[in-house]
Design a protein that fits this description.
heterodimer; A: 553 residues; seven-stranded mixed beta sheet; four-stranded antiparallel beta sheet; 13 helices; globular; B: 431 residues; alpha/beta; three-stranded antiparallel beta sheet; 12 helices; 36% helix; EC 4.2.3.2 (chain B)
Chain lengths: 553, 431
Amino acid sequence: MPSARGQVSPRSVSAPTDSAAPWPPVSARRLTLWPCDSGSSALPADFFFLRIQLRLSVAKGNTCMMNKGENTSIASTMWLTIGAGGSPVGLAEWSQPCDGGGPLAVGHCHPLVVQAAHEQNQVLNTNSRYLHDNIVDYAQRLSETLPEKLCVFYFLNSGSEANDLALRLARQYTGHQDVVVLDHAYHGHLSSLIDISPYKFRYLDGQKEWVHVAPLPDTYRGPYREDHPNPAMAYANEVKRVVSNAQEKGRKIAAFFVESLPSVGGQIIPPAGYFSHVAEHIHRAGGVFVADEIQVGFGRVGKHFWAFQLQGEDFVPDIVTMGKSIGNGHPVACVATTQAVSRAFEATGIEYFNTFGGSPVSCAVGLAVLDVLEKEQLQTHATCVGSFLMELLRQQKAKHPIIGDVRGVGLFIGVDLVKDEATRMPATQEADYVVTRLKENYILLSADGPGRNILKFKPPMCFSLDNAQHVVTKLDAILTDMEEKVRSCETLRLQPSSVKHPPGKCTGEERSRCTNCNPGEKGIPDIRGQMAWGLAPPLSYRTRRPEDFPERP
Amino acid sequence: MENNSMGGSVSLDILEKSGRVGHCHPEVFKAALKQMELLNTNSRFLHDNIVEYAKRLSATLPEKLSVCYFTNSGSEANDLALRLARQFRDHQDVITLDHAYHGHLSSLIEISPYKFRKGKDVKKEFVHVAPTPDTYRGKYREDHSDPASAYADEVRKIIEEAHNNGRKIAAFIAESMQSCGGQIIPPAGYFQKVAEYVHRAGGVFIADEVQVGFGRVGKHFWSFQMHGEDFVPDIVTMGKPMGNGHPMACVVTTKEIAEAFNSAGVEYFNTYGGNPVSCAVGLAVLDIIENEDLQGNATRVGNYLIELLNKQKAKHTLIGDVRMKEKRVLLSVDGPHRNVLKIKPPMCFTEENAKVMVDQLDGILTAVEEAMQAETQSVISENTPCRTKMHKDAHVELLSDSTNDPTENPSRKRNGMCTNKHSLLSKRLKT
């Protein structure tokens, strides 16, 4: 059972022992976050922010944050205010304290993590040219979570750097250049990684000749679905086909890069056995298997520490990259690989050096995160809350036809919204609308997938059962409301600029003339127009004041 | 500044190039703690800190450079700079200087001769290498009438050749003062002329300030400003010293370049880049540089140090050149022949520290010279200090009791180097 999440308790960090620089302990209450999604397709662990009625003004020195509203058509503003003295502002009625709520794995500003960083900062922070215990200890702890074969660690600062190094390692080890990736994959923002991220390169420079794209193993929308007798084998054969095609052209495969659970591709759970079959084909072609655990590692999937372990105990990738959750907000990342791969890399004569990677503070933070994951049993917690959330969402699926699929494992869940159950056409606009409505209800979520129609749930691991219940209740209400609107006005169409009243108000003759009530597409209301009312118009960042945010019922 | 090592002896760290304001400066980690306790999120959520920090940074730069992209490391910053340059006019080629080092990422190794010449990689066809404007050891030396124009002309020739082959130049990238190349200070006027040629070819000028920015040169905040008030690069990357050890870096560029990049339609998103804690740390570092007048200190101590070292140069024949520019001491352990000792201390380095360091160096050099005189054979024995083949990792870390433990040094084991009194690294710090 997950540990009980009680009342907000003021959290304080003890004063430093160094009397030369005394400072008063700072205590700050944590705000409850209803984590669903960080609002970014590239982010793994997301968080919700409760919108707070601004009663204390910015002038009082409170920290404010504004969601600039990406993925939505309106830059709606949500202020999160944390009082300098600690008390959350106007939060009482909506808050359910979540001990250690945080942006990544273990929750915002987790005191143990903050403490570890602070203590190390006070003592020594240098770079890895100087040996330090922390990096050794951290590497050791990490290796305990991984299969024995993966025992060499490179520390870096971001997931992108990690994937770039993985690419270099693969190429040096195999002597080949080409990479096989999945469709709609995203591996990072660096030049080399955009080249292997169809999610990005389709909008930029296009596919390079050394990149080969295999179909996403999506059993809901892909070519082989849940009714196929062996989708894992079928999708793996697609990879085999891609590899053969490349080899026929005289190209040689260096690596197969895959997110262990494709995230921006739509919260995909690859069928069991897929990775093993693919690894077989890739190894035969002389390449290595790179598992990108940046978004999904560190216990998020509940059952296992690493998402690739879902594919079977016997499956071990050649290179694993990890990031995001690893430092709970601190820029850290890591690449774990086998001795063979690292020796080949070393043999090039060029050492790998990363100025900040593996610094004592980064390693101290990493160690603290591992400690917290263990102490607070967040992995088990993820399993419990994840299963509960999935169950609730499945009930919603039975109730609302717009939900085509609910898939997930642990606290990595996707809700696929469709226009039509039979055709499974992505309900892009509807998903957009749901996201906006949820934001109004103080829940931040975003949609992803090629059709931008999959609601992503990737909360911090301290997400509670109550949080789950709350989110699903709100989602239910919104979906019910949407269905009613569709039922009550078959020919809805709204012009955002001419909205005067909610659609459906006009009757008879008026309705044919009214721009608000005229037909939308195929009976689905052009609901984006509805966003024009109900939300405060976006003001410029600097001019917002408490008075701008009226009380909401 | 002074670290207590395991044995209780005090080491003077003069190579902590990323610890700009000093190890564990209390203001910095206080700011980090404060923000870490409060809120640390990512830049999808706007936060005051990133705005404040961008404002403060751009205030130190010429007005033209007004758009900031935050990343986590100098390598990421340089990679983004390349992307910006290439997106700007859709050109691909890059001109870089010989022995340059811009980062460890795939894209940067391609433009870092310091790296690709060592390994099995070959120079890519879209990379053009210009000779380093080294007036001590380069093609045109201090006796040349106009080395700046001569070296700039080399760049012009490269551009012409590239155009003849149908290639288009996207950028010229250079460290404002080359570090791994041997602490090279380009002659005055070089950057301006090169910028002219590159702009004419439709490219942009990228100044890599990752190692040398933030007041290190004393007189100016940014090293490129040494080359004249009229010289403004198109893209500036900064890193290492920004966060005093905290992983952060930044790319600053002009509005035109940023707009061209944004118009591609794909946003630039970096999960950790520009997070509130990093920006709080960056702000604290800027405050310290200002409040403690570290730039002034760099000037004063730099002058003093250079004086002492010049005395040593007169005394020891081993020292061929002592280079400095604007009070920054450049005595490095790098360079193509690995014979240049480099000193790049944190900016809080004091005159006492300088004296200590030079005294130690004096002692070591005297010992080395005595040993060299005793050498009669050309075969290098285990005990003979290597003059030229110093591993590039050899930081000169001076211990008050000069012990060295060869077994602890993995880099020495790797290249089978002989014992070298100069490389006293890898002291395991139990902190």
